[in-house]
Amino acid sequence: MYSFTYQKPDSVTAARSAFEAADDASYLAGGMTMIPTMKQRLAMPSDLLDLSAIPDLKQITMADDHLVLGAMCSHHQVAMAPQVWGSIPALAALAGAIGDQAVRYRGTMGGSVANNDPAADYPGAVLALDATIITDRREIAADDFFTGMFETALDAGELITAIRFKKPRRAAYMKFHHPASRYAIAGVFVAEFRTGVRLAVTGAGPVVHRLDDFEQALQKSFSPEALEPLRVDEAALNHDHHASAAYRAHLVKLMAQRAVKAAGIAS
Question: Where is the signal peptide, in residue numbers (predicted)?
Answer without folding.
Answer: none
